[in-house]
Design a protein that fits this description.
InterPro entries: Ribosomal_L18, Ribosomal_uL18_bac-type, Ribosomal_uL18_bac/plant/anim. The chain is of the alpha+beta class and 119 residues long. Helices cover 40% and strands 21% of the residues.
């Protein structure tokens, strides 16, 4: 039985999450979701089970609605870094889910690092 693309994605996602659970020592998790048109990110406190901050390319105030490119992802990354600082979070683990660390996901992570978030 051949694995579908979705099956392979789910396997990658579970592999990333299980590795993060092993090393997580109370740091927040920066979880990324990328669709064909948009990208969104959440800063999650797994100990308390709450979302501390979030940002998305769908937000009108970021000015990237409708742009599905690397620049839009970088603006979202800068926004999450700023919101994390306001929430008092300085360090986080980067949870790329099943997405490869390439293109928009990489641009988001680098922009968050430049914004002062330690990943």
């Amino acid at each position: 039985m051949a694995l579908t693309k979705r099956d392979l994605f789910q396997k990658r996602r579970q592999r990333v999450r299980s590795k993060l659970r092993k090393v997580n020592v109370g740091r927040a998790r920066l979880s990324v979701h990328r669709s064909n048109k948009n990208i969104s990110v959440q800063l999650i406190d797994d100990v308390n089970g709450v979302t501390v901050a979030s940002a998305s390319s769908l937000e009108k105030d970021l000015g990237v609605v409708g742009k599905n490119n690397v620049e839009a992802a970088a603006k979202v990354g800068a926004a999450i870094a700023e919101r994390a600082k306001k929430a008092g979070v300085e360090e986080a683990y980067f949870d790329r889910g099943g997405f490869l660390f390439h293109g928009r996901v990489k641009a988001l992570a680098e922009a968050a690092r430049e914004g002062g978030l330690k990943i």
